[in-house]
């Protein structure tokens, strides 16, 4: 039962979207989690009040408000410093997770405790509740990773390794997850275990909360788990 720390940077987030994000974490079937939120100096009082109020009513929610804007990398690094879990999950401020998302990740870890990364399929959830743009991802493919960040949402990463490779580097805003994954991939410890890559695919059908067409994931309904490649 590893603790999972979910990291979310916020900045003037629409309160309705952020409330749905928070509630989706609170609804997780797997209970050993913490939600680490860093607000990146939002000018929106509604955003800051929602985070503070949520933390006041749920001790599993940790938050910090930065005095000045540091960008998504700086805010995510600050959220990471709040984390105590074995794994960290990267959740955008308008993402939603289905109730079984973390459960299915931990279920996979029972058979593969050595995994450093777990990733899922994803699709979009439009304002009217319909799904769109399904993205069914292949098993672990180093070649595909070098051509684009296909693992992305929802991703679970071993916290120790995130910190070892330098976490999120300022200057890579907008591609910070990809930059992190490439450094994971080239890190010696990550490279091999018994001749196999240590990334597992958790194939989950997902959906996302998409307020203005942004790409965010809501993981739902486990289908299969890809083996080590």
Which key phrases capture this entry?
8 helices; alpha/beta; 229 residues; two-stranded antiparallel ribbon; 8-stranded mixed β-sheet
The oligomeric status of these chains comes to single chain
Beta-strand content bin: 15-25%
Overall number of strands = 10
Radius of gyration: 16 Å
Low-confidence stretches: 191-199, 201-229
The strands making up the biggest β-sheet line up spatially as 3-2-1-4-8-5-9-10
Backbone structural class:
alpha/beta
Fraction of residues in helix: 25-40%
Give the N-terminus to C-terminus distance in angstroms.
25 Å
Give the overall form: globular
Q: Report the average pLDDT across residues.
A: 81
Order of helices and strands: EHEHEHEHEEEHEHHHEE
Number of helices: 8
What does the main sheet amount to? 8 strands, mixed
Question: How would you characterize the overall build of this protein?
Answer:
By secondary structure, this protein is of the alpha/beta class. It has 8 helices and 10 strands. The chain has an 8-stranded mixed beta sheet with strand order 3-2-1-4-8-5-9-10. The chain has a two-stranded antiparallel sheet with strand order 6-7. α1 runs parallel beside α2. The chain is globular, with a radius of gyration of 16 Å. The C terminus is likely disordered.
């Amino acid at each position: 039962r590893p603790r999972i720390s979910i990291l979310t940077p916020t900045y003037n987030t629409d309160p309705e979207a952020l409330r749905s994000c928070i509630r989706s974490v609170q609804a997780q079937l797997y209970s050993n989690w913490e939600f680490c939120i860093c607000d990146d100096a939002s000018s929106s009082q509604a955003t800051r009040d929602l985070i503070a109020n949520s933390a006041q009513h749920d001790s599993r929610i940790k938050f910090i408000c930065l005095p000045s804007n540091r960008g998504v990398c700086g805010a995510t690094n600050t959220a990471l410093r709040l984390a105590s879990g074995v794994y960290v999950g990267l959740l955008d401020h308008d993402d939603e997770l289905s109730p079984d998302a973390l459960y299915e990740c931990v279920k996979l870890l029972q058979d593969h405790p050595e995994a450093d990364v777990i990733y899922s399929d994803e699709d979009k959830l439009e304002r009217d509740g319909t799904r769109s743009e399904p993205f069914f991802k292949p098993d672990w493919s180093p070649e595909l990773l070098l051509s684009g960040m296909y693992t992305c949402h929802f991703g679970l990463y071993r916290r120790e390794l995130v910190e070892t490779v330098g976490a999120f580097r300022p200057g890579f805003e907008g591609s910070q997850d990809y930059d992190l994954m490439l450094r994971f991939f080239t890190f010696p410890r990550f490279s091999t275990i018994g001749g196999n890559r240590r990334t597992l695919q958790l194939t989950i059908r997902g959906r996302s909360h998409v307020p203005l067409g942004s790409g965010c994931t809501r993981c739902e309904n486990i289908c299969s788990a890809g083996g080590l490649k």
